[in-house]
Write a structure and sequence with these properties.
Elements lengths: L2 H30 L3 H29 L8 H9 L13 H19 L7 H34 L1
Helix pairs in contact: 1-2, 1-5, 2-3, 2-4, 2-5, 3-4, 4-5
């Protein structure tokens, strides 16, 4: 198995742990109304997105040959992953995954740049609720990409 394909599988194990922790934290918040659990959910959602973005950075650098630069490189990176790169590679993620992940990208920015007391619990609850669907689809698409890498390395 190629190193990148292995990295995709390994990284998604950590991403799944972060997502499960976000869900558990949110459930505890709903039971206790303790806002510290909101903070935990937010940080774990951010961690899950960061894991996906790390994989995309590696794909951009090692497969595509370039990673976007500039102020909005995070957003450009998502769009790059949703594009087929001619004979280099197929699209890594679908347009639907791009839209779903873009919500987590924007949220990651908020988590990094505001104090936790400013988090909007309602928005975090929505993101936790959507996380299984979004990240399950992204995982399937990244596993398909890992299979592409394996097929390519066999040639």
């Amino acid at each position: 198995m190629s190193r990148l394909a292995q990295r995709i599988i390994k990284e998604f194990q950590s991403i799944n742990v972060a997502l499960e922790r976000a869900v558990l934290s949110w459930q505890k918040f709903e039971r206790t109304d303790d806002e510290l659990y909101v903070d935990s959910a937010a940080l774990n959602l951010q961690g899950a997105y960061n894991g996906v973005e790390r994989l995309f950075e590696i794909i951009a650098r090692d497969i595509d040959g370039e990673r976007p630069a500039g102020n909005n490189w995070h957003q450009q990176l998502l769009h790059q992953m949703a594009m087929e790169m001619g004979t280099i590679r197929p699209a890594v993620i679908s347009g639907e995954s791009l839209q779903g992940l873009d919500n987590y990208r924007a949220f990651r920015h908020i988590v990094r740049h505001v104090y936790s007391e400013e988090f909007e619990a309602k928005r975090i609850g929505e993101l936790v609720g959507e996380s299984r669907q979004v990240f399950t689809q992204v995982a399937m698409e990244l596993k398909a990409f890992a299979s592409f890498l394996e097929q390519r390395s066999e040639l």
